[in-house]
Write a structure and sequence with these properties.
- This protein is an all-alpha fold.
- It has a single domain, classed as Farnesyl Diphosphate Synthase, CATH 1.10.600.10.
- The chain has a two-stranded antiparallel sheet.
- Helix 7 runs antiparallel to helix 8.
- The protein is globular and about 60 Å long.
- 39% of the residues are buried.
Length: 324
């Protein structure tokens, strides 16, 4: 079993050799800019780890893993346009730097590049790989549409929200793990289990992101605290707060979210204070713990070597114990 550090090095080295800087420059420069930001590169790491877990050769999974990462970054680039976000990972977003039209076209090109890399796999396995990738890409788009619908939808339930983050976030994490299993020619039963594990892990991961937006340390989180609050984003915290708030708390919560005259700093501080009064921080942590435990139960049902279990457990702790 290769170490996390070794697999991360393989991913970094592979991306350093891509050379997306050719002409036309205004098409490829935003792509290089996006991919050079690095980020956690969690999804390609999961592909390689899963392949290794099931006895495959991670080096033969590197191109499909890169395809998953390129696809993920394509979705972020287009999300930033839809959200009119000024920053991504502490730097100007592509549409801010090059303009919306350039960002759309570069994102479209990344979508094509993702397929090119995913297709660089064992021809025998390619139909299964493409079926998985196509299904995942469609579901991610469905999740994004639900997320946009929530902006104008008055009543969004916790179940609605959990379905949305399952599609928008969790399925790509699950896809990464199942892809690695397919490339290792794992038992289909175990490939299905590792996918289910990824769904629960992805749900916990997104809930952790929601939590950090309100209760994280901005110097470690990598972006300003309260971004979701400032944009009235219907996160788990938002929905749960309106579900629990009564009387004056509900009135104040409504005023903070919907009075456009309130200063953003005052709005964020006021809503976080109400969240604390309602113990939304504790409720969210318990929900994260619930999905973490479900993920671990599924993972432990797969017969794996102790060192493989230790490596995946370490990565899970990094994902769910992160501060950014």
């Amino acid at each position: 079993m290769r170490s996390l550090q070794s697999l991360q090095h393989s991913i970094s080295e592979a991306f350093s050799k891509t050379g997306f800087g050719h002409e036309p420059l205004r098409l490829y420069a935003p792509i290089s800019y996006t991919l050079d930001q690095g980020g956690k590169r969690l999804r390609p790491l999961l592909v390689l780890m899963s392949c290794d877990l099931f006895g495959g050769d991670p080096d033969r999974a590197i191109f499909p893993a890169m395809g998953v990462e390129i696809f993920h970054n394509f979705t972020l680039l287009h999300d930033d346009i839809m959200d009119n976000a000024p920053l991504r990972r502490g730097r100007a977003t592509v549409h801010q730097k090059w303009g919306t039209n350039a960002a759309i076209l570069s994102g479209d090109t990344m979508f094509v590049l993702a397929y090119e890399y995913v297709a660089k796999t064992d021809p025998e396995l390619l139909p299964m790989v493409l079926d998985l990738f196509n299904d995942t890409a469609r579901k991610v788009c469905e999740g994004q549409q639900y997320d946009m619908d929530f902006e104008t939808q008055k009543d969004v339930t916790i179940d609605d929200y959990m379905l949305m983050i399952r599609l928008k976030t969790a399925v790509l994490i699950a896809c990464s793990l199942r892809l690695g299993a397919i490339l290792a020619k794992a038992n289909p039963v175990y490939a299905e289990k590792i996918y289910d594990f990824g769904i629960e892990l992805g749900l916990a991961f997104q809930l952790q992101d929601d939590y950090l937006d309100a209760f994280g340390d901005s110097s470690k989180f990598g972006k300003a605290i309260g971004g979701d609050i400032a944009t009235n984003k219907k996160t788990f915290l938002y929905i749960k707060a309106f579900e629990l708030a009564r009387g004056d708390r509900r009135i104040h919560l409504t005023n903070y979210f919907f009075d456009k005259e309130i200063d953003n700093g005052k709005k964020i501080a006021g809503i976080i204070d109400i969240y604390k009064q309602l113990e939304i921080d504790e409720i969210t942590r318990r929900q994260i713990g619930y999905h973490h435990q479900k993920a671990m139960d599924i993972f432990r049902s797969i017969p794996l070597k102790p060192d493989a279990i230790a490596e995946m457990t370490e990565l899970m702790q990094e994902m769910l114990g992160r501060e950014r």
